[in-house]
Amino acid sequence: MTSLRNTSLVAILALACAAPAMAQFKNAKHAVEYRQAAFTVMGKHFASLGAMVSGKAPFDAAKAKADAQVVAMVSTLPWSGFGPETEDVKSDAKMEVWLEKTTFEQGAQRLTKAAADLATAADSGNLDQIKLAFGATAKSCKACHDSYRN
Fold this sequence. Notes:
CATH topology: Four Helix Bundle (Hemerythrin (Met), subunit A)
Largest sheet: none
């Protein structure tokens, strides 16, 4: 478990350090790969929380806190990878991402806020609080997926 946590922290630190440099991507394909990598990291840690919240895995307050911190931090990263130059790159993103840019960006802000709230709830170590915040975060993810992902 420590190895997984260390690997996750290294991945997070690498993404965080790369974020300023990634403001200008080498090309559109790299921007898409960057956002996909961020969503993959976020998804893995969110799924770990989901297993605890649903009772499919034993609740571990320290792991929940670590997972929630990763989700919160990584939730801020993928949005720079949705530049206008990426709309023609094959991905799961629907054209509505670019056609409804303001609404899409508002959804991104809702996810980032919900993920921060999830990290705060996980800091408490209270499973009931985590469940509530997890549900709100999942709802935010689903809304965006329903509207903007194939």
